[in-house]
Specification:
The structure holds 2 protein chains of 2 kinds.
Chain A (H helix, E strand, L loop, with lengths): L2 H11 L2 H19 L5 H8 L8 H18 L1 H7 L8 H12 L3 H36 L2 H12 L2 H4 L4 H15 L2 E2 L6 E2 L13 H24 L16 H5 L2 H16 L4 H16 L11 H25 L5 H12 L6 H6 L2 H31 L4 H20 L3 H19 L3 H24 L4 H5 L3 H27 L4
Antiparallel strand pairs in A: 1-2
Helix pairs in contact in A: 1-18, 2-3, 2-4, 2-18, 3-4, 3-16, 4-15, 4-16, 4-18, 5-6, 5-7, 6-7, 6-15, 7-13, 7-15, 7-18, 8-14, 8-21, 8-23, 10-21, 11-19, 11-20, 11-21, 13-14, 13-15, 14-15, 19-20
Chain B lengths: L10 H19 L12 H24 L14 H20 L1 H15 L5 H22 L15
Classes of the chains: A mainly alpha, B mainly alpha.
Chain lengths: 501, 157
């Protein structure tokens, strides 16, 4: 992108109308992200009618602000009440909520904020300079490559089992099974619906996730409260201060890693923030010297998940702007907004009206700077929420979750699904099955199945042809096999060292 | 070394349940009629593969449980409080369309607080009513979500 276009974009963004639109977008998105069931996509959709009378670039900048805020906002309830506000924040729960329970609330929330801002800024710069080359990466991905990428992501279930690899894999398989419920997108066969019309649409990720994480946690906390009478699970003093620069600095390499993966996965249509966070979290854990500390309050887990989650925002805009292909629900809404204003995205956008994409790039940078301030204020207000007495907190969270789930689907059946998964989640925890592996299996299960079947159709039923269709798919599949073998080798070595296991 | 064991005695039940689930998946997926032969895997391909994996892991857990030394974590178990809260939530879902959001949500919040040993009635009423009003305002007015009116629908017909 030329310097002239960037300067034109900067001049446009610097106008007060643009700045107010971006700030409002970030605020709206953050609030939406904080409410379970209201994702960045829904927050954007709600704002779409208000963009009618706006300048198209201002409208897109505002929606970009919502996108940034929405992706970040989900991490606040994830850290404070163990309830992910958005799908991608499911990974943040693993360490963020543990940190909060250990009294390191400030560390959890502010690492999440700074990492989100880092990821967002990184992706904005990546988008600015690499939009066209990155778009070519997206084009190179066919069914075989998506299948291989999803398989690499799925190998993370081996390490999510914690003490027991078998249970991690089992939980992942159960998640994949849940993803097969509903109409088969290829043949139209209703699978595992048992004649229920509501099940034919399949299980919503929101219902599954809020059930497994939020409802099950609230049910267990109810029991703990009645048994112990303890007002809050924290036995230590809560530290809500902003971490020092020295502390934050040590997360930057992990932020960078998460951001790079977030941008690359964000570029791939259909992959999205949830896949990006699981894959980057899994990789960091896999290569960590102390993998057992993940899921027990390791701030690196929060840092990598949040930076990759927010880096997806820039990545997802690449196929939209450069190719005219919306890679996610959120970018589909942006495409809608562009089309409402007669702006056609695609390669011509960069040559005919370069000031539009450049304004969007600059606005992403500004949105992430605003995000720091808005997020800081949101954290300050949200921390007060946790000082509420536990019975009230549990009741409010359950009321909020059910309202959010109903709002998301408009169907009471989804409350039943959410509740059922809450109950199942308690049993899963009783048996030591990791809920996060179920969510990962669910998210990637659909991608694995759909892309494997597409690849098989392309290769005329040859599995070898489907798996090793290109260099990218071969490399990704080999990496997946190596990562499984690494975990198994580690596990066996650990069993030899600790024979009592 | 309770938390460090690979298998727990309770895995016997889990193993059995999982094998049953796998068998159920297998039986159900054999009933689907595949109309399109251009799709080599078909709609039952992945579920059958899953069922195989689930049954295998179930057997491993079942057999492994016989070598287990510990029962498992004593922290998490099903008790009367969990069941009561669960049933209250179930009743909420069951009655929501009939009774309506504005009446049922404060009742849900209040009854859960009561179950969790809160006996200060003023506190219960304040929290349940205030929370409902905030949630209703955010979702209905802010997010334009049409929440169920139930018996109050005549007021807004």
């Amino acid at each position: 992108m030329g310097l002239e276009a960037l300067l034109a974009g900067l001049a446009f963004v610097a106008q007060w109308k643009s700045l107010v639109a971006i700030l409002f977008g970030v605020f709206w998105g953050t609030m939406g992200g904080m409410i379970p069931g209201i994702s960045a996509t829904i927050a954007m959709a709600l704002l779409l009618p208000f963009t009618w009378g706006m300048n198209p670039t201002v409208a897109i900048m505002m929606l970009a602000g919502v996108y940034c805020g929405g992706e970040y906002g989900g991490s606040i309830p994830a850290c404070l009440i163990g309830t992910p506000g958005t799908n991608a924040a499911a990974v943040t729960v693993l360490d963020g909520y543990e940190l909060h329970k250990q009294g390191k609330t400030g560390m959890a929330l502010y690492v999440s904020l700074t990492s989100s801002v880092f990821g967002g800024l990184f992706s904005a710069f990546a988008l600015m300079f690499l939009a066209i080359p990155l778009a070519n990466v997206a084009v190179a991905f066919g069914p075989s490559e998506y299948f291989a990428l999803s398989m690499l992501g799925l190998t993370m279930i081996c390490s999510l089992g914690g003490k027991n690899v078998i249970k991690g894999i089992l939980a992942g398989l159960l998640g994949i099974f849940v993803s097969t419920i509903g109409f088969d997108p290829f043949s139209g066969v209703a699978r595992f619906t048992f004649g229920s019309f509501s099940l034919m649409q399949g299980v919503d990720l929101v219902c599954l996730m809020l059930g497994l994480f939020a409802v099950s946690e609230m049910l267990i906390q109810s029991k703990d409260y009645v048994r112990t009478g303890q007002n809050f699970e924290m036995k230590v003093k809560t530290n809500t201060t902003f971490p020092s620069w020295k502390e934050l600095k040590r997360f930057f390499p992990f932020n960078l890693f998460g951001a790079i993966l977030g941008v690359v996965i964000g570029v791939l249509p259909g992959a999205g923030g949830t896949t990006a966070t699981f894959v980057s979290y899994g990789e960091i854990k896999r290569w960590s010297k102390n993998p057992d500390s993940f899921g027990k309050g390791n701030p690196v887990g929060v840092a990598v998940a949040e930076s990759s989650n927010n880096a997806v925002t820039g990545g997802a805009l690449v196929p939209l702007l450069a190719l005219g292909i919306p890679g996610s629900n959120s970018t589909a809404i942006m495409l809608g907004a562009l089309m409402i204003h007669n702006v056609a995205p695609g390669p011509l956008l960069f040559t005919k009206t370069p000031e539009i994409p450049s304004s969007i790039f600059i606005s992403l940078i500004v949105a992430n700077i605003f995000l720091f301030g808005v997020g800081y204020l949101a954290i300050k207000s949200a921390i007060r929420f946790t000082s509420i007495k536990k019975p009230a907190l549990i009741s409010i969270v359950l009321g909020l979750v059910f309202t959010g789930v109903y709002a998301y689907s408009g169907d009471i059946f989804s409350i039943w699904i959410c509740l059922a998964f809450g109950f199942i989640g308690v049993w899963f925890r009783y048996f030591g099955l990791p809920n996060s592996a179920v969510v990962l299996g669910f998210v990637l299960g659909f991608l694995v199945e759909a892309n494997l079947r597409r690849a098989l159709i392309v290769s005329d039923g040859s599995y070898l042809g489907a798996f090793f269709n290109s260099t990218i798919s071969s490399v990704l599949l080999i990496a997946a096999v190596i990562s499984v073998l690494t975990v198994l080798w580690r596990e066996m070595r650990s069993m030899r060292t600790h024979p009592q296991r | 070394m309770e938390g460090k064991t690979l298998f727990q005695k309770r895995d016997r039940i889990l193993g059995l349940l999982v094998v049953l689930l796998g068998a159920g998946i297998l039986v159900e997926s054999n009933r689907w009629i595949e109309l399109f032969h251009t799709d080599p895997a078909g709609p039952s391909g992945a579920p059958k593969l899953l069922a195989g994996g689930i049954i295998f892991l179930g057997i491993v857990l079942f057999v492994g449980s016989f070598f287990a030394r510990s029962e498992g974590s004593k922290e998490i178990y099903m008790d009367r409080t969990i069941l009561t809260v669960f049933l209250l939530c179930g009743a909420y879902a069951f009655l929501l369309n009939v009774v309506g959001y504005l009446i049922l949500t404060p009742l849900l919040i209040g009854s859960i607080m009561w179950t969790l040993l809160t006996r200060n009635r003023k506190e219960i009423i304040l929290v349940s009513v205030f929370t409902t009003l905030v949630l209703f305002s955010v979702f209905h007015f802010g997010l334009k979500v049409d929440l169920p009116w139930g018996v109050l629908s005549f007021l807004f017909a």
